[in-house]
Amino acid sequence: MEQVEFDGIIFTDTLQAYNSLQYAGRVTHILCQEGNMGFTFQETRYNIAAGDYVILPNPALVSGFSESDDFQGILMSLSDTFVTSIAIRSNYGIIGHLSLLQNPVMQLSSRDFHVCREAMLYIRKRLEDKGHLFREELLGSLLTAHILDLYDIHARGKGNLQVSEHTASLLRKFIELLYRGEYIRCRNLNFYASELCITPHYLSEICRKISGRPATYWIDRFTLQEIIRLLRQQELSLTVIAERLNFSSVSYFSRYVQKRLKHSPSEYRKDF
Q1: What pTM was computed for the model?
Q2: pLDDT tens across 61-103, in order?
Q3: Which CATH class, in words, describes the domain spanning 184-271?
Q4: Does domain 9-157 have CATH number 2.60.120.280?
Q5: Contact 144, 172 (CB under 8 A)
Q6: 47-59: per-residue pLDDT in tens?
Q7: How far apart are alpha carbons 207 and 191 in whole angstroms?
Q8: Are the CB atoms for 120 and 108 separated by under 8 Å?
Q9: Which stretch of DSSP H or E encloses residue 40?
Q10: Where in the chain do CATH 1.10.10.60 domains reside?
Q11: Which of 24, 61, 63, 199 is deepest in the core (most CB within 10 A)?
Q12: Which residues make up the CATH 2.60.120.280 domain(s) of the chain?
C-alpha cells in the first residue's frame, strides 16, 4: 500500500517554527510545559504559564507571539479537514468552539496537565510510524480520545452544560454561515433565522444559553474580525473596505466601527 504525505497533524517545538508554517484552515493546540508565552487573539492580550492549554481555532486572528527564555511547550497543528473526518459523536464541540472564540486558554489541574501531555507525546510518537498501514485511522482514534479529554476538562470547568442534538445542529449551521462570510452580505438577525427556519428570538435564545451571548454578538464578532484584518492593510482606503464589506456608505461603516470598537476606523489605524 502506497504511503502518502500526511499533514493532518503537525508538531513543532518552537514558536519560531510555528510562525514559519502556513496555518490557514488549521486549529492550533499549545500546551505550556515551562516558562511562559504571550499572544494577541482578537485584540486581547493573553499571557500563559506552565500548565495552561491553548486552542486557537483561527490562527489568522493571532498575532504578537512572545516567549520567555525558558519556554517549553508542545505545539500541535490540526487541519480542519482531518478534524472533520474523525467525526466525533458529541454535541459538546459547538459549546467548546464558541467558548474558545471568547477565551482560548484553559488552566489545567496537575492531573489534567499530565493526561494532556502524555496524550500529545504519544500522538507525536505514533505520527512517526509512517509504515503503519492504517496510520490515519490510528491517529484519528488517538486524536479523538485526546479531544474527548479536552471536552471533559472544559465541561467540568463550565458545570457540564448539556445541549440537545437539535440545538447543537442549529448552532453549528449558524456559525458555519458566519465562517462562510455571510456577514459580508447581510448582518441582519432575521436573515440568519430565516436560513435556519427558526425565529430571530429563538436563535438569540439558544446562542445566549450556550455561549452567554446573543446571536447579534456573533454576527458582529465575525464582522469586526474582518474589519480589523482589512484596517491593518494600510494600502486599503476606508472607501474600499466599506465597499468590500457591503456597507452602504463610509459614514455608516465608520459609525459601525466607532460604536463597537470605541474608536473610529482612522483612530484604530493610527493606534495600530
Answers
A1: 0.79
A2: 787 889 999 999 999 999 888 888 886 767 777 888 888 888 8
A3: mainly alpha
A4: yes
A5: no
A6: 999 999 999 887 7
A7: 15
A8: no
A9: strand 36-41
A10: 184-271
A11: 61
A12: 9-157
